[in-house]
Structure formats: C-alpha cells, structure tokens
Amino acid sequence: MNSNNVKSIYMVAICGTGMASLAGLLNEAGYRVTGSDVNVYPPMSDLLAHCGIPVKPGFKKENITEDIDLAVIGNAVSKTNEEAQAILEKGIPYVSFPQALSRFFLDGRKSLVVAGTHGKTTTTSLLSWILHSAGRNPGFMVGGWLKNFDCNYRLPQGDFFVTEGDEYDTAFFDKGPKFLHYRPYAAILTGIEFDHADIYRDLDHIKSAFAQFARIVDPSGFLVVEHSDPNARDILDKAPCKVETYGFDPAADWSVASYRFGEGQGQFALVRRGQALGEFALPMMGRHNALNAAAATAVALNLGLSVEEVRAALRTFRGVKRRQEIVGEKNGMVVLDDFAHHPTAIHLTLEAVKEAFPGRRIWAVFEPRSATSRRNVFQDSFPPSFRLADKIIVAGLFAPEKIKPEERLDPEKMTQDLRRMGKEAYFIPEAGQIVEFMVSHNEKRDVALIMSSGGFSGIHRTLLARL
After folding, report:
1. Domain holding 267: CATH number?
2. Which CATH number does the domain housing residue 83 bear?
3. Final residue of a domain: which of 75, 99, 123?
4. In the prediction, which pLDDT does 2 show?
5. Would you say residue 398 has pLDDT above 50?
6. In this predicted structure, what is the pLDDT of residue 249?
7. In the prediction, which pLDDT does 14 show?
8. How many domains does the chain have?
9. pLDDT score, position 168
10. Within-domain flag for 320
11. Residue 3 pLDDT > 70, yes or no?
C-alpha cells in the first residue's frame, strides 16, 4: 500500500516503548492513530494520553473495523491474538513496528542507527541531542526517556533520523532483527555479547545477526565500532563501507584519553588518528559513558559538525531516565535507578557509581526481570559482576512461571555464590521486604543502586518514602 493512501492507523500492543513512540510520531505527522493493549500504564499510557491517542483495553476482534487503512502489529503479539486474526481475516494491510518506522520516516533521509548489546539508549540519545543542539533538527526514536526533550521521540525536520537499533525479533510474521529494517547510512556498533536467550541460541547466532546488520550499511556511509570488542571485530569485514574504531586504546581511530570524573561530570580528551581534538565534558558518571560520547562524536564530526558544536552539546546533555538516574536522597541515602540487567552492564554501572560516590557504602539491589536475566545462562557470570558492591540484595524472579523450571536463574544460589566470594549478599524475594530490610540497615552516606529492566514494583519511591 502506498503511504500516501493511509489515513487511519491501528496499532496492536500500542503501549510498548517503541510502539507508543511510533504512535506519537505518526500522530504528529497527521495520521489518525488508535490502538489497544493489555498493559496500559505509565509512562507510555501518559504519553499516548498527552497525544490524544485513544487506547482500547484488551485485544478484541470487534476493535478491528473496516475504516482501518493500515495495522501496525507489535512484536509481543502472537499470530493467535484475537485482533491479529481479525486483521488477517479482513485482509487489512499490516506491517511491523520497524517496517512502519522505515516506511513513514526514513525515506529521503540519512538513517543513523546505534546497535550493540550495551549502551544503545545512551549513545542514541547523545547523538540525537548533539544533532539537535547544532541545529540539524533530526528525528529520533530512543528506547529511553531523554531529559533534554522530556520524551523519547521527535518528528524529523531535517536530513537525519536517529534510531536505536534493536537486535530483538520484529514480529510473529518476521523473526529477523528489527535493525535490519532501518536502512543505515551510518551506524554505531557498541559491541556484541550474548543476550536475548529467548531468541538467540548462542553467541555465534547473535553475531550472525550483527553481521547481517553490518552488510546493509550504505557503501557511501560509515560504521563506527568499539575498538576493544573482539566479537565486533569478527564481523567488520562484512561492512561494505568505511569503518572507524573508537576506544581507550591509542590505536583506535578515535581514542579517548585522560578520562577523569569530578564535580559531577566526566571529562576526557579525544584524539582522532593522532590529531588532538581537545577536552570534552559530559555530566554523566562512568568510563563507559565517555566511550558512548566518543562514538556519538565520531558520527557527528563525520557528518560535518564542528568540534565546538559537539563540545557544547555534550556539556548540556541532561541524561536519560533510568540510566544511573538519581531518584532522590533521604536520611543520608542516595537512591539511584538503572536499567542494568546483563553482567557486563551491572559491572560497568557499579564501577561508575563507585567512582561518583567515593568512600561511600554501595548497595546493589537487583531484580532478574528481562527474558535473559531470568534464565540460568548467566548463573555463573552474575556473581563476579557485583564484586564492587558492598551489600547485595537479589530479588525473586519476575514472572518465573514464564520460564521453564530447568532454565530458570536460581537467585538463592546466586547469593550463596556471592557469599563464597566474601560478599555480604541476601536473597529477599519481594520489593516490600527489600525496602524494610534496607531501612533497618541504612547508614548515613549509603548509596542504593537499584537495577531492573522494569518498574520493580515502584521500589525506588517506596524506599525514599520509608526513609
């Protein structure tokens, strides 16, 4: 179907982070958007309400009416879904979320895609803000909430569209990765590790997906890759375009040097193939965020922005919600919220928090919630990733019934392994129990780093209220 003939768009599972953002984009672009979902809750429900987009609770075949020109079906929707069945029976044209994004917003623009196991959301946000700050008016869609914009999408007014490239599958009718639909002119690859154990068999399987992604980068564009990652290096010969590397190694094309953290910001120097570009400041903690900023800078300068434009943008970047976000401080305890759910991400986040709060006791509170973290693929990898924490609490698995018993992570064994490492670790299943334990054991100047890929029963606000 020609997009020019589309006026009414119906979105099945509209409250997913990506789907709600796409709904906002389509609404701003002038389409009549409606949808449905079984999980209608903030912040996406608030976003949709703010946009005036009606959301029908539950999936019902009677929601699929003859006036729908196009249906967008989210990847959480199965073929047996009542609305999906009605769409198929009525012959209504349908597309996946990434197909819709590509069709309606990438035509005629330079698509900039950030892919990789870690750092995608922050790096996409940084690149989007750099281009916006420099007056390039990009469109973007990000998997996190950008504080600079107070949203996670923006309608493009210029030549660029920045997308967080997800390697997760696309839809029940397309089991390939989402990022294969984004037609990248230029891309960032932050590194490759095993993840998404519900979709990928092993590391080689996930590397094959990224190899496919590298192959579709525009030959006239470029690919920027983290220098130290051996899994990423293995697929670079698949890219038909110019490839540049970034990292802390002086051998990287874009080398980060002299990193330090102080006065609430990371500071670092950037060297491009021996040419010093000067000092940059970023109001975020952690060496990994300096790398994210270097990747975004490499893309921006390759696109023609000046060093000064990038420097000014980084200095005014306000961060992303749920990425080392300070939720509040009460009775001497600082409470942080973070999305970390992979062993590498947990280690890097703890490293950053330890650096930002020197000499303070760090609590690491972890909810195994993502499809992979609830599985036992990381049973042995999780304990060492917590070694920088002073006190560790592991919660019960979120919705354990959705994981086969023989495949489930054992959080009690995890805490036992941590104790064998000499760490003070506790298995406390429920969020309410965790709050009461922390309140009764709190000491002045404690820092609580709470890590989950979901809402964790609102534990952050509950803890602050009890403190």
Report:
1. 3.40.1190.10
2. 3.40.50.720
3. 99
4. 54
5. yes
6. 95
7. 94
8. 3
9. 87
10. no
11. no
Record the pTM: 0.89
Mean pLDDT of the region 154-176:
93
Strand order in 160-164's β-sheet? Answer: 151-154, 139-146, 160-164, 110-115, 186-189, 222-226, 242-247, 254-262, 265-272, 275-282
Average pLDDT over residues 350-357: 92
pLDDT tens readout for residues 15-28: 888 898 999 999 99
Residues 115 and 196 in one domain: yes
pLDDT at position 233 is 86
* Residue 206 structural domain: 108-315
